[in-house]
């Protein structure tokens, strides 16, 4: 039961954002596009997290080989790394979307193919 408790505030604030967005005239199609971009950011976050962890581990092993001191692998799995990876993903996604289109290349391709 405690595991579900954390979902309650998230569900309530998401519902409040949906109500506020609908009152401001934001369409459901816009919500779908936003959710698609969110999932892209989640995927990019996972990719950046994996790459950052692998690179950090490689650098740690290199530091161990080149120095006589002990360098811990623990630092490469710090929880801050996930936050930094999310920031990298968001920056890349916003940069990707700033190329003059709506940022959803798959949707643009579909429109050109269908239209």
Low-confidence runs of at least 5 consecutive residues: none
Write the element-wise H/E pattern from the N-terminal end onward. Answer: HHHHH
Query: What is the total domain count?
Result: 1
Number of strands: 0
Overall, the morphology is elongated
Q: What's the tally of helices?
A: 5
- Please, what is the average pLDDT? 85
- Helicity range: over 70%
Question: What can be said about the biggest beta sheet?
Answer: none
What Rg do the Cα atoms give?
A: 20 Å
Tell me the fraction of residues in β-strands, as a range: under 5%
How would you portray this structure in words?
With 115 residues, the protein is mostly helical. It has one domain (2-114). Helices cover 77% and strands 0% of the residues. It has 5 helices and no strands. It has helices spanning 2-5, 7-23, 28-66, 80-97, 105-114. Helix 3 (28-66) crosses helix 4 (80-97). The longest helix is centred in the middle third of the chain and has 39 residues, at 28-66. 3% of the residues are buried.
Keywords:
elongated; 5 helices; 115 residues; mainly alpha; 77% helix
In short:
This protein has helices at residues 2-5, 7-23, 28-66, 80-97, 105-114. The protein is an all-alpha fold.
Task: Describe how the helices and strands are arranged.
Layout: H1 2-5, H2 7-23, H3 28-66, H4 80-97, H5 105-114
Helix pairs in contact: 3-4
